[in-house]
Amino acid sequence: MVLCLRFICALALLWLTPACAVPPLQIGLTPIIPYDEIGLDEDLRKYLEGKLRRPVEFVRRDSYRPAMDLVAHDQIDVAWVSVYPYVYLQHHFNLRLLATPVYGGQPFFRAYLIVPSDDKSTKSLLQLAGKIFAYADPYSFSGYLYPRYELHEAGKDASTFFAKTFFTKGHKRVVRAVAEGLADGGYVDGYIWDSLAKSEPQLTAKTRIVEMSGPHGFPPLVAANKLSARDFDELRRVLVGMSADPAGAQLLKRLGLDGFVAGDAKWYADAARMMRVMGDL
Q1: Mean pLDDT, to the nearest integer, of 216-224?
Q2: 111-213 CATH fold
Q3: What is the pTM of this model?
């Protein structure tokens, strides 16, 4: 009788707690996505949990390299990264492109060269010779690779072109450094500058856009090798379907995005070419 009761209790315990056996889907977040709105990341997490029917955990990192290491070594399942990290991870670890955001109707973004708003004379990067320049991150496409590449193409050496350079560890911090006069210029992700222009117009008003790059593939989500094909397909389905779902569409609006698409590696070929030219691949 005692053994029978123990068996029944064990079965009840298994029936009552099936979710405990499912590990959380871990998604790495980097400064490429400006979560300035209170509660936005928590609402997004709950939305994904409801659609995937499993726990979801966001793993935040303040710079790109830690998130790159986590997803490259299968310590998290997915990471939302910049263009440079995606190309690097795909080249060295053969990581899969999970999804690309759609912004302004296209899966592309542009890099913006900004200067202080009271600088009325600067019209190009080359006019910042001998000035102080703010970089976003050593693994940032728009905030580090792109300006170095542009100088290289102009026959200039980025290591000696500026009087001083420094890393801010984030695009928003580049905007703040330029706005506060700590730097004479910097290149930032246009999506982030545009987002800040809506959420913190008093900050971006202290900067002026001098140049815009051509379109490049929007910073994507990449999947670790450990993520199963089934989980990969399911998460992609949920992300791509957000724009057709009322709750998902509301979250996308708060993110300033139109939606997600499966993505195409060809959209990042130009960035890969720049990385090879600069010896980063």
Answers
A1: 97
A2: D-Maltodextrin-Binding Protein; domain 2 (3.40.190)
A3: 0.88
